[in-house]
Amino acid sequence: MATLPGKEAAAQVFPADFVWGVSTSAYQIEGAVAEGGRGPSIWDRRCRTKGGVGDGSNGDVACDHYHRFGEDIALMRDIGVDAYRFSVAWPRVLPRGRGAVNQVGLDFYDRLIDGVLEAGITPWLTLYHWDLPQALDDLGGWTNRDCAGWYADYAALVARRFGDRVKRFATFNEFSVFTLFGYAIDWAAPGVTDRMAHLKAIHHVNLAHGFGVDVLRSLVPGASIGAIHNRQIVLPEGGREENMAAAALLDEHWNRAFPDPQLLGYYPPQIAEAIEPFVVAGDMARICRPVDWFGLNHYGPIFAKADATQVWGFGWGETPAGTPDYGVGWPIFPDAFRDELIGLTKRYGVPIYVTENGCGGDRDKPDADGRVIDTHRIKYLEVYHRALREALAGGADVRGYFVWSLLDNFEWGAGYGQRFGLIHVDFETLKRTPKASAAWYRDLIVNLRPLEK
Ligand code: IFM
Asked: Which residues line ligand 1 (CB under 6 A)?
């Protein structure tokens, strides 16, 4: 297909209802962790554990979005996005994870959702973005099979309360990141390193997803339900033979442990064998429920190496020297994004929304005139957008794209050292400053929005 500039090209390549959005998550931006009746989450605990977060910081204040959400909605409106993906903090609405409901927490999300809708933006609600209530972790968290039922009750609460205004739901964000890092590699809460715990967590989270889909389907008329998977090609460090098996196993864990059972009804082979003791008759049918879309979070390839000290015998490998990266240390490889999108369409046959893509780094600072000129992020977004167009032209069924993230925020184990936002946040004053990339995204949306929109 010939590449034409501007709107004509958009009409050719992008579906008429293509969605342009931005994503965030509760713990990374809300702050107000001890306000309005919110209970503690496993990330509050981890932030208070020595070494849990590199810079010793926490999400106590974060971007103070809990109080400043109106300003943040106005910033989104200025960019011109169609959609805003946010997550509900389970411990804000159910402080102990189950039982007593916190009306003040529900009221907060009412105000947020109403404000987003008033701005002409469609809310996309993620039920779980890693902040499990601590009270549930005290009962074993995701290693406890009952956690799938607690999640289903939480999903029902959210569906009943917001389902009149919210129709787009994601059950989970990045299943394999929070289970692998939280239960096998100590890079995330709750910081367990144990094979059996990890396998149980994988299976129970998959079950929770299945329950969540059914609950949402039954309680929200017109719901459009998906799940959000991180997927990136896994390569053996140095291309070396001794790292091949590590790469193959990491690929199963990273890329297939969740989408395969959820969409195809089976686990990938090595995981299937190991997880068998935890699978009860009927489980696979419970997990494999029809969804409306596949959420893809994609950044760059990852590298694996054999590492006998690790729970699964694989560790994170080094990126080859000289690989381009624009700040976060993650390789820039847009062809892998294009191929992933085309491959996903063939493998799972479900419409795709790119629910996260973006560029971090520690170099975004206001200049003498107060502007934040983040050329590296614009370059990243440009090459990934080229790949997106190529994927669409190559037959990928992509329906939308969300930048991670609206705001600089609390970047988990990296604390505040990595900035992913289109909007700069001064974490001393909480002042928001749109970066050059926000203007770039605004212009892209205007230019690529189909003529009839
Ligand atoms: O900040 C995270 C987000 O919470 C999940 N996906 C990757 C982002 C950048 O690391």
From this structure: 25, 28, 174, 297, 356, 404, 411, 420
